[in-house]
Structure formats: C-alpha cells, structure tokens
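User: Let's play a game. I give you a shape written as tokens, and you guess the letters that built it. Ready? Here's round one.
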C-alpha cells in the first residue's frame, strides 16, 4: 500500500528504529526491494534520483507508485536529492509521497528558500519534505578529512533551519558520504546527539552503504529514523548481471535454459534482494 513517508518515519522514531530507503532505477530493482520488505513484513521507502527521473520520467514514477500501491506492506515513494522546484512539484503531482529538496550546496538563505517553497508544494499534495543541511561529499569528490569536517551539519543552524522552513525530516552530515570509500568514514556521534537535541523532526542518514551495522544502529539510537542505501544494492544488482554475462559469454543462446532475459533478471533481483533484506533488518533492529 502506498504510504505517507512522514507517518512511516515518525512511527519508526517512536519505536527507536528506522525505515530503510533504497534507490530504484527500474521495475526489476523495485521488485527486489518490495519483495525483501514483504518477506520481512517491514515498511520500506522507494527512492528515485534526479538522473532516474530525467531518464524515465513520468512512466518510471507512476510505475514505482503503482508498485507501492500493490505491495502488501506500507511503501512510500520519495524523490531523492532534487534542487529543481519544478521537478519536485511534478513528482508530487505524479504521486510521490515525499521529496528531498536538496539545497545543501546553496547558501543557508537559499537553502531555506528552496525548502520553504518545497514545503508549500508538498502541503497541496499531502506530502512530506526532507531537506539537507551540511554537504554530503561523494566518492567522486575526492573525500578528505578536511573536506568532511568543513561539510558537517551545524547543530545551531539545524534548529534555526527547521524552524524557518517547516520541513518534516532533516538529512544530516556527520561524516557520512555518498558511495563507497576505501575505509568506512568515522561518524561523529557526539555531533549527531547535539543536532538531535536542537531539532524536533526525524533525522535521515544518507550514505549508509558500507557503514556497518553497529554504526548505523548507534545513529538510530541517537535519533536517525530513515537510512538511505543505494551503492550496495546497485552494485549487487549489476554484479549479478556481470557474472551472468561471464558465464554465458557475449552472445547468449535464447534456446537454452537459463540464458533468457527473465533468467538474467531473476538472478539480479535475487542478489539485490539479499542486500536490501540485510539493511531492513539493521534499520528495524531485527534478528538476522
């Protein structure tokens, strides 16, 4: 069933757990995420990035929304990391439950303006807005210790930002990064605690790929109620496709068992599903 993102995240926060959110790029990856959540009987968030939006447009969004509607567990659909007001409004109109109005690369005042505008749009669609304060570096950014320190969320600014914008969720930068790094980045849990003390909305931890169960669950205990995972799931999906290609070579024989499209997709879906399930268990504090 299609769910309200804020309701899912707020319920998780009250229970001292988090909702896992996974980026999807196709019906097959959506299937892997939803099936894993259904098997564990846990809610989940399907996320669409800007690149996916530009590639798939309305058909991809509506297919994702329909998949959420038909799921046996609560599923929210979220537009991830978008700085374009028009795209945010369009995705909410197409049925997305929420959006991240990402002004983290802007000045504080410009970030506030974007988030306020997004909140107004969301109100008209009974949707939710997440915002980000502090800059989350990515693996392509050449992450350094100095860059991470300069990008961290300021607790006092966080309180001011939430009050000024009315956003319902706040993505924080506490040393986490997007994508893989050679070593898992050390998270500043003291900073996270100080941020949580300044704001009264659920916090989001982006870049959960590679952080490890212990770090993620410690962050959840300090107020994080939504964790974002992308790289690990995408890598598992693509690695399964690569392994299939190595096994059957550059020219599959469709007359032979195991070499058709559906065989390939079953393997990729199964591989992604394992990683999704692992993160859902971590977020939900479930026994493995």
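Assistant: Ready! My guess for every position:
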């Amino acid at each position: 069933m299609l769910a309200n993102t804020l309701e899912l995240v707020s319920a998780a926060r009250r229970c001292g757990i988090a909702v896992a959110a996974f980026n999807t790029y196709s019906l097959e990856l959506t299937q892997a995420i939803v099936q894993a959540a259904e098997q564990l009987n846990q809610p989940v968030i399907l996320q669409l990035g800007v690149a996916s939006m530009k590639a798939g447009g309305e058909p991809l969004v509506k297919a994702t929304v329909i998949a959420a509607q038909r799921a046996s567990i609560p599923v929210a659909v979220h537009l991830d990391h978008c700085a374009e007001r028009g795209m945010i409004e369009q995705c909410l109109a197409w049925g997305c439950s929420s959006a991240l109005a990402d002004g983290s690369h802007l000045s504080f005042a410009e970030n506030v303006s974007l988030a306020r505008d997004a909140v107004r749009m969301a109100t008209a669609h009974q949707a939710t807005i997440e915002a980000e304060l502090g800059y989350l570096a990515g693996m392509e950014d050449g992450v350094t210790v100095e860059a991470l320190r300069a990008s961290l969320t300021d607790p006092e600014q966080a309180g001011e930002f939430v009050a000024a914008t009315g956003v319902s969720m706040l993505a924080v930068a506490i040393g986490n990064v997007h994508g893989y790094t050679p070593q898992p980045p050390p998270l500043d849990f003291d900073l996270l605690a100080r941020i949580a003390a300044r704001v009264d909305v659920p916090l989001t931890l982006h870049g959960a790929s590679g952080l490890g169960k212990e770090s993620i669950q410690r962050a959840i205990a300090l107020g994080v109620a939504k964790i974002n995972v992308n790289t690990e799931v995408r890598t598992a999906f693509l690695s399964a496709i690569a392994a299939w290609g190595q096994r059957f070579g550059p020219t599959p024989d469709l007359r032979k068992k195991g070499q058709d499209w559906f065989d390939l997709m079953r393997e990729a879906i199964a591989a992604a599903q394992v990683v999704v399930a692992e993160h859902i268990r971590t977020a939900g504090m479930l026994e493995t």
